[in-house]
């Protein structure tokens, strides 16, 4: 329901999943339900609720000793933090998530590259934004995150636009459109 933008139903179902996982004492399931609730909240424009849910998800992943889940959740937190305060996000997260993502799982690499892409774009370094954007796209496609891939294509297009390379901007935006149309 979340992926089809039925956010009210998605929220209800995520809350039900969270309740079920809480009753089962399934820490990983609780973390995943919080992560989903965060994504829904962010899409609803409720960024504070999204951060709260991501922090709860991170606490669950940490408690479960699930480093992959924790890396994914914290990379998601870092990515969203850049939009509110780029300098603070860079100060808090850049040491945690270095630019070389070669040793990261594709899911984590997707969010880490996206974090670095957005940091670069927010600070006017559009060449690096594009470089990390392309890496975001590649990682997202490896783990089947079509929605992230589509958004990334449009972000890369915007970065090319800011460099006054309108032809490349159009090409990247069209790539996003080609990915989106079949869905």
Question: Any key phrases for this structure?
Answer:
mainly alpha; 79% helix
Explain how this protein is built:
By secondary structure, the chain is mainly α. It is 79% helix and 0% strand. The chain is built from nine helices and no strands. It has helices spanning 7-24, 27-43, 47-64, 67-84, 86-93, 106-122, 126-142, 146-162, 166-180. Helix 3 packs antiparallel against helix 4 and helix 7 (126-142) packs antiparallel against helix 8 (146-162). It starts with 6 loop residues before the first helix and ends with a helix.
Structural topology:
Layout: H1 7-24, H2 27-43, H3 47-64, H4 67-84, H5 86-93, H6 106-122, H7 126-142, H8 146-162, H9 166-180
């Amino acid at each position: 329901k979340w992926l089809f933008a039925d956010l009210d139903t998605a929220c209800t179902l995520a809350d039900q999943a969270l309740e079920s996982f809480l009753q089962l004492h399934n820490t990983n399931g609780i973390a995943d339900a919080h992560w989903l609730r965060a994504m829904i909240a962010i899409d609803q424009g409720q960024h504070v609720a999204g951060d709260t849910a991501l922090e709860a998800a991170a606490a669950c992943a940490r408690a479960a000793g699930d480093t992959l889940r924790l890396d994914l959740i914290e990379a998601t937190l870092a990515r969203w933090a850049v939009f509110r305060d780029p300098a603070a996000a860079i100060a808090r997260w850049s040491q945690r998530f270095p630019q070389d993502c070669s040793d990261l799982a594709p899911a984590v690499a997707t969010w880490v590259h996206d974090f670095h892409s957005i940091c670069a774009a927010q600070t006017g370094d559009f060449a690096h934004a594009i470089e990390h954007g392309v890496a975001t796209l590649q990682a997202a496609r490896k783990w089947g995150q079509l929605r992230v891939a589509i958004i990334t294509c449009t972000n890369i297009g915007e970065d090319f636009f800011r460099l006054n390379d309108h032809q490349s901007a159009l090409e990247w935006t069209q790539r996003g459109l080609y990915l989106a149309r079949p869905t």
